[in-house]
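Submission sheet (multi-component)
Chains listed below:
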Amino acid sequence: MSFPDPIAVFRTEAAELLEQIEAGLLDLNVNLGDKDQVDAVFRGLHTLKGSGAMFGFDALAAFTHHCETAFDRVRKGEVPATQELVTAVLEAKDHMRALVDTPNGNHEATGEALLTSLRAAVDGAKNPGAASPAKAAPGQNHFKIRFSLPQSAMANGTNPLPLLDELRELGECTIVADRSAIPALDLLAPTDLYISWEVELLTTQPRSAIDDVFIFVMDEMQLEVITVEAPAAAAKTPTKTETLVAEARPGAAAPFAAPQAAAPAPIAPAPIDAKQKKASENVRVPAEKLDELMDRVGELVIAQSRLSQLAGGSGDLQLRAVSEDVERLSGELRDTMMVLRMVPVTQLFGRFRRLVHDLAHETGKTIELVTEGESTEVDKSVIERLADPLVHLVRNSCDHGLETPEERLAAGKSAAGHILLSARQQAGEVIITIKDDGRGINKERVRAKAESSGLIAPNANLTDQELYQLIFQPGFSTAQAVTNLSGRGVGMDVVKRTIDALRGTINVASHPGKGSEISLAIPLTLAIIDGLLVRVGDGRYVIPLSAVEECLELSIEEDMRSRGRSFISLRDSLVPFLRLRDLFRTGTKPDPFQKVVVISTGSERVGLVVDQIIGDHQTVIKGMSKLHHDVATFSGATILGDGDVALILDVGHLVAEGQQQEAHLRAAG
Amino acid sequence: MPASDAKEDCLHLPQNLTVRAITIVQQEMLQFLDKTASATIELDDDCQVDISFLQLMEAARIYAGTAGKHIALARPASGPTLDVLKCSGILEGMSADDLQFWLHQGGIQ
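Outcome: structure written.
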C-alpha cells in the first residue's frame, strides 16, 4: 500500500483553498459589505498560511501573511473592503499559486510589487473619519459613544487611558481621539485635558456596562451613548436617531449624525454547516486512480462481452446464467463508475468569474456574467478539455462581442454588457452555451474576409450557419484591432479542433445589435457508452444508442423505389438516409431485409441503412490512431467480445452529411 | 537646572513626560521654540509618556505653525510614545501631516 505524498496532498488542498479564496473575493467584489465573505476569505488565507508553514512553504506563508493581515483589518472594521483591495488580493492569490507550485522559484520581485499594490489598496481604503462602521450580530449591541472627561481630570489623578482600555475589553471597539480643542502651546494649561473621544463599540454587554466604565468620573464628565439599530431598520426609520439621542445623558453635546448606510457584518465564528459536515464524509481520490479504475472497468466490459458470446454459443445453461449475472454486474459497475467520473460544470464555470472580472478591468467595460445549469454533470475528462475552448469564446465575447459602455448607451442598451454561460443535458450530450448581448457577428465582414482569404468563392451561396462556421477557420479574424486579448485569429480554430476531438459540434447564432450565441454540443462521456451494434457488409459498427431514435425495416421494394432519392417517409415527414454499404464501399450485396436506424442530433434526423442490427453493446471507447485523424465518419473504435474491432460512427458527422445530401437533392428538384 | 538639553536646534526632552512633569516641559519647549526657526525634538526610547505629553506636542505644533516655525521629532515615535498614541485613539484619526510628524511616514505600518 502506498501513502500519498504529503506535499502533493498540501498542493491539492492549497489549490482548493485558493479556489475558495478566489470565489470569496469575487463574491465580495459584488457586495463589498458582505462580512461573511470577508470572514470566508480571511479564514481561507489563514488556513493557507498555516498549512504552508507546516509543510515548509515558508515563502508562501510569509506572503500570505500580508494578505491575511489586510483582511484581518477589514474584518475588524479598520479598513473597508474596496474593489481595489479585492483586485490586489486576487492578483496576490495568483502569486500564492505560483509559490505553491514552484516554492523555490525566483518570486521575490513579483511578490514585492504585489505587496506594494496591496499596501496602496489598504492605505487607499483606510478612512480614519469613518471609525469602523460595523454591524451588530444577533445578540450584539452596537453603540456609538462620545465622551469628554473633566478638564481637571488628569490633574486630579484620572488617567483616561485605562478607561479606554476598559471600553476595549467590552467588545470590538474603535476609538478616535478628538484633538480639536487643544490650544497653542502658549495658551495650553498642560495638566488640563483637552481631548475628547468618539467610540464605536460592538458588544454583547448591555448599555449599563458602559456606564460602569465611567462610574468614578460619571458626575463630572459628559457621556453620550447612542444605540445603533441594524442598518435595514435604521434605513426604514430615519427618525430613530432623534429618539435614541434621548438616551444620552442630559447636558451632553450634540449627538452623532444619523447612522450611515449599511455597515459590514460582524465577525461570526465559522459555522460548521451541512456542507462541511458532508465533506468530512467524503474520501479524496486522485484523478489518475479514477482513470485507472475506468480502464479496468473497460477491460472487464470487454471480457464480459466475450463471455456472453461464448455462453451464447454453448448449450450450458449454468454458464449462460453466470454470464448473464456477470453482464448485469458489469453494467451496474460501469454505471457506478460513470457517476464517479461525473463532475458538475460549476467547477468549469467557476473560473470564468475571475476571467470576466479581469477582462472587464482590462477592457474598461462593465460586464456581468450570469451562469445557469451549474449542476449539470459531465465526465471529468470532458470538463478538463472544455476549459480552453471556453476561455477563447468568453474572451472573444468580452473583447469583440460586447461594446463599450458609451457605445451600449448610444445603442439604447444598458451600460453593462451581459454574458450568459449555461449548461444543460440533451440526449446524451451536454450543451454549453455562451451568449452575449453585444453587437453580434458582422456577416458582411465575415464574408468579405472569407472571400479575400480565398476561403470561399466571391458571392458563394452560404447559409448563415455556414458563414458563421468560417470564424473557426485557422487565422480567421474580423477584428479591426488586435488586442492582447484576442483578434489575431488564433484561438477559434483551436476551439473547433478541440470540440471536434471531443466528438462535439458547434452551432453559432447571431443577431446584429442584439448579440451572439455559440452552443457547444459535447458527448457526456468519452469512456464507455451504450451502443447499438450493427453489421454493414462484413464489418460491424457501433452507433451511440443515445442518438438512436428508432429502427425500421427497409424492404427491397422500398429500397428500389427510393433509389436516387434516398428519402424515407416517416410519419408524414421525409427523412434522408445514407446507405452505409455504399458509404463504406463494402462491395457486398445488400441483405434482403435491410434496416434503417434513424439517428438524430437535436432536431435534425437521418436514417442509416445497415444490413443487420445485432443488438445493444456496452462500448468501451478507444481512440483512433493518428493515421486515422482525418477520418471524419468515425469517432473511435471498440473491441468486441470475440476480439474484433468495431468502429464507432460519428453521429454528428453523418447527420450533417445526410442533411447536406437532402439539401442538394432538394436543390436539384 | 533645565529639564531638557538644548543643542543648537535640537531639544532633548527628559524621561518623565507625564502630567507630573509636563508643566516644566512646556516652559522649556516654549523657550526653545521662541529662539529657533526649526526645532527638532528628541525623545528617549524609554521615556515615560501619558496623554498630557501628546497634548503638549500637538499644542507645540499649533504654536510653531502659527509662528511660521518648523517642528519635528528627531525619530519616529516608538516605544511608550507610540503605545500611548495607539491607546489614546490619536493614531486612529491621524491626517497625513500627523503621520509625517509622529511617524515620519505617509502611512501606518
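Remark: Chain B has a mean pLDDT of 86.
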